[in-house]
Amino acid sequence: MSIKRVLTLAASAAAVAALFSPVSSASALEAGTKAPQLAAADGNLHVWTQPHAGGHHCAWSGNSDNWGTCRNLTSDIFNNGYPGGLDAVDLYWGTSATGAHACISQGDSWPDTTTGQYRFTYGEGQGGFGQSVNNNISSHRWVDYCSQG
Questions:
Q1: 129 and 148 Cβ atoms separated by less than 8 Å
Q2: Pairing status of strand 101-104 against strand 76-80
Q3: How far is CA 89 from CA 37, 72, 123, 130, 134, in A?
Q4: Strand order across the 139-143 sheet
Q5: What pLDDT, on a 0 to 100 scale, did the predictor assign at position 29?
Q6: In whole angstroms, what is the distance from residue 130 CA to residue 91 CA?
Q7: What is the DSSP letter of 53?
Q8: 80-120 pLDDT, tens per residue?
Q9: Which long-range contacts (CB under 8 A, 24 or more apart) does 114-117 make?
């Protein structure tokens, strides 16, 4: 068999192997990025005790006066409520929807509240106003939209 024929067969075999071999996630995505995942609305407010869906998970489909095992321990928040009425969530500094609050709109995710970016901006003069929401939320209420109140 000639050298030219061997090289042609080798190149063809390599091309076929490349077409049918799985692509590793490391080569498919740049380092440090995640594949986008779109979650269908499930009607719940989801929280985790560590950033980026880490640690203990709590979820609610309705209002909560006391976050129990997630109270003042939350570093990731995702509003996966159904679009329409009562699809935003007021997050309260105190139990039973007391004190200052922040609001997260339907479909929004705050994956890392440890950055200090998310704060209780509603309820000036009430407990917790201006503080970071990280490890500082005690209760919530579903509302029609986010607004000063």
A1: no
A2: unpaired
A3: 22, 17, 15, 18, 16
A4: 101-104, 88-92, 139-143
A5: 28
A6: 13
A7: T
A8: 999 999 999 999 999 999 999 999 999 999 999 999 999 99
A9: 114/51, 114/75
Q: What one-letter code names the amino acid at 123?
A: G
Calpha distance 123→39 (Å, rounded): 31
Token pair for 58: 């709590």
Distance CA 14, CA 53 (A): 41
Closest C-alpha to 131, from 83, 92, 98, 77: 92
Structure tokens at 127: 């407990």
Q: Residues 110, 115, 121, 124: is their CA dihedral positive or negative?
A: positive
Reading the block at residue 80, the tokens are 């996966």
pLDDT in tens, 14-39: 443 433 333 333 323 233 223 234 57
* Of the candidates 99, 134, 82, the residue with the CA atom closest to the CA atom of residue 90: 99
Count how many residues are written for the chain.
Answer: 149
What does pTM read for this prediction?
0.74
